[in-house]
Amino acid sequence: QWKQLENLYFREKKFAVEVHDPRRISVSRRTFGQSGLVVQTWYANTSLIKSIWVMAISQHQFYLDRKQSKAKIPSARSLDDIAMDLTEMGTPKLSKVVTLEAKNQLIMASNGSLISSGSQDSEVSEEQKKEKITELKKKEKLLQEQLLQKVEELKKICLREAELTGKMPKEYPLGAGEEPPQVRRRVGTAFKLDDNLLPSEEDPTLQDLESNFIIHQKLVEAAKKLASEPDLCKNVKKKRKQEYADAVKKLQEIENSINEYRIKCGKKPTQKSTLALPGERIP
């Protein structure tokens, strides 16, 4: 009977069962000092011995589970209760002898044994289980922190992509009931002046006027991009159109100043703003 079982173990081609029998006293070296302990042994190839040992362990676990359920739950358990036990993420039951770790070791090990729940080795095993669970919880917490960090990085990347394309990518992580943020496409208006573009006039006054013209010409191009941006509200669009018109007017005034100075110095006037802006206006 299962209540008389002391241990189940295998080693290579040997499978043994230790049971308590009050009517007999074993004299083997393995059971020295224990009365009534009988060892029954079978021999076969290693794969068969492993299979027999696994089946015996599973059958004994089934016996322990039934014994515990009868002691704690007199009535029949519902399917919901069974499902909750199967999905429980907490500490394994103290009466459970075979854990997942033991099953993984079974495949690689050349021997194994089942220690009865009342022995000293079982207490040590339970302590090891608690330490293992604590270690796994620490790893879980560390992985959750790393996951949150990666999610924040992914959000930043998706927001940058949305600013460039005007459309939020589907990879943007969303929580339960969270709506994706509204991002407006960013218009590139930055510019850099090349030193080669600046005129090298001998007259410093004319050189300052020419440099000022080039700078305002870039400002007009930037104002035009902002005014041409789609999906703008009416007030913002009107304001940007006015800023673009003011920038064009300022550019014309700078060119007029350049031409007046050139005529004064006996040089021909230019039409730089007309060539730079060939009638392209915001409708």
UniProtKB/TrEMBL annotation:
Question: Where found, per UniProt?
Answer: Cytoplasm
Keyword line: Coiled coil, Cytoplasm
Q: Where is the signal peptide?
A: none
Task: List the record's Gene Ontology CC terms alphabetically.
Answer: adherens junction; bicellular tight junction; cytoplasm
Would the keyword Membrane turn up in this protein's UniProt record? no
Could you list the residue ranges forming a coiled coil in this record?
A: 126-157, 237-264
Which InterPro entries does the UniProt entry name for this protein?
Answer: CUPID, FERM_domain, FERM_PH-like_C, FRMD4A/B, PH-like_dom_sf
The FERM domain covers 1-67
UniProt KW Cytoplasm keyword: yes
SUPFAM superfamilies assigned to the protein according to its UniProt record, in alphabetical order: PH domain-like
What is the predominant subcellular site recorded for this chain?
cytoplasm
For the biological process aspect of GO, one term held by this record is: establishment of epithelial cell polarity
Name the PANTHER family on file.
FERM DOMAIN-CONTAINING PROTEIN 4, FERM DOMAIN-CONTAINING PROTEIN 4B
Q: What is this protein called?
A: FRM4B protein
Q: Which organism is it from?
A: Elachura formosa
